[in-house]
Design goal:
115 residues; mainly alpha; single chain
Length: 115
Amino acid sequence: MSGAPSLAELIAEAANLMQERSGGQAVCTFTKAGQAVTGLKYAEGRWAALREVQHNTRSGAELAEVVATAAAAWGTHLDRLQARSAGADWIAYRSGGTDALTELSETLRHEGGAA
């Protein structure tokens, strides 16, 4: 193993990134004010996608399978948002999640399935 971060560590990194980008304020504070916060939404998407994987693996499902299913769903949703020219925050959110799942999938492939 190359010492790749665990799923829990990736979630913690995503949470820290959200915290840094929000300055400790709730995400809804920015969105309710009508401010575009693509960097923050990207970080939130990373966190949300990884938490979804964590939640879905608690039932005993294989991590690689859960990641592949989530990546397909997040990617499809991102494609739909882009096709209809959705707002930048929504695209950033789904892009963050899609990127996190792609990175996790690549790590699992290189590590032999465990993260």
